[in-house]
Amino acid sequence: MSALHAGDPASFAADVLDEGPAEVEYEPGIAGRRPAKTSAGGALIRDSAGRVLFVVPTYKPVLDIPGGMTDADESPKAATIREIREELGLDVELGPLLVVDWTPRNGVWRDCHQFVFDGGIIDGAVACDDELEAVVYLTLDEARPRIYPSLYRRLTLALQALETKTTYYAEFGREV
């Protein structure tokens, strides 16, 4: 799979060519004055008991879901697949997009678009990355004191999306 696109690389390359030549600036410098946003992709993975898979990072004091920040020219879905391979040693085929959530700037971190995909059911996942201490399967209520409130809200929407087969747009974990 291409770093640019998690789907068919050949059709993606054709789509890029169909766009025509790279866009040029008619007003020099305008693109450089635009704010830069980050994006991240994560997977809602559950076990057969319905508990959510959380990773225990070594670099922050809270639990998170498998996934991470996108690299340059990488889609959120491709980043999620790459991060799951790095963090858990698994090659997964992600299901549908469940939630797109905008999160505001927080300290050193810029505002971000967070994408949550259905990661399916995986029992017995283990941490395979030095950035992780472990993985744990917890219900959302069990995880609540160990995750950011915005992630709790985002995952609540993601679980709702699984049931309703609807993708939700949220801002800081709240559907809008």
From TrEMBL:
Gene3D superfamilies for the chain: Nucleoside Triphosphate Pyrophosphohydrolase
Organism superkingdom: Bacteria
Coiled coil: none
Keyword annotations from UniProtKB, A to Z: Hydrolase, Magnesium
Pfam family, one: NUDIX
Cofactor: Mg(2+)
Residue intervals of the Nudix hydrolase domain: 35-161
Protein's name according to its UniProt entry: Nudix hydrolase domain-containing protein
